[in-house]
Amino acid sequence: MHTYHLYARPGWGSVIVEAQLAALGLPFEIEDVADLFASEDARRDLAPHNPLAQVPTLRLPDGTLMTESAAITLHLADATGREDFVPPPHHAARPAFLRWLVFLVANVYPTFTYADDPKRFVATDDAAATAFGAAVHEYRLRLWRIVEAAADAGVQLLDVGLDGAEHLLEPDVLVLLVQDVEALHQRQTRVDHGRELTREQHQVAR
Fold first, then answer.
1. What is the pTM of this model?
2. For residue 136, what is the enclosing H or E element?
3. Please, what sign has the CA dihedral across residues 106, 130, 55, 172?
4. Strand 57-59 and strand 4-8: pairing?
């Protein structure tokens, strides 16, 4: 089997795809990139593979390049025929899965893009950049409250499969990992390939 090639950085959002590749048992190699905020060279080197110079960027075994965590998640489910993270079409959990997958990647995750380094977007005024970062952080908290309210209302993303085992669907993985992105970014750590992704055991390596 050919190998997946993941452009990644320890402690950054590429951990979401790295965790899935490891859990699915797919052969993959990692090419670590330098700090894309701080290094113009790192951005220039990644840009031919991803014009936004962001991770995750994944090269498939056939050479096709993919970006965007949600798109990669759906593709890996299709390519492997596995249901570990994505409920199949016509499954009762599929609509909720798609809703919260897109909610997380379209709403919650971008707040890290804006708040990690507010001066990229408000470059002329330090005070304004600080205020912008604080406002984005407050908005992120509001978004998490929406997720929490859905969970409290009984939204279930864990699926009990035909084998009777609980399968951790991708929005749960994203919730767990995205919540740790800030801490990971500080520690520059990466996911432990050896652990299983279950609701009880899932943790990002500290």
1. 0.76
2. helix 126-152
3. negative
4. antiparallel
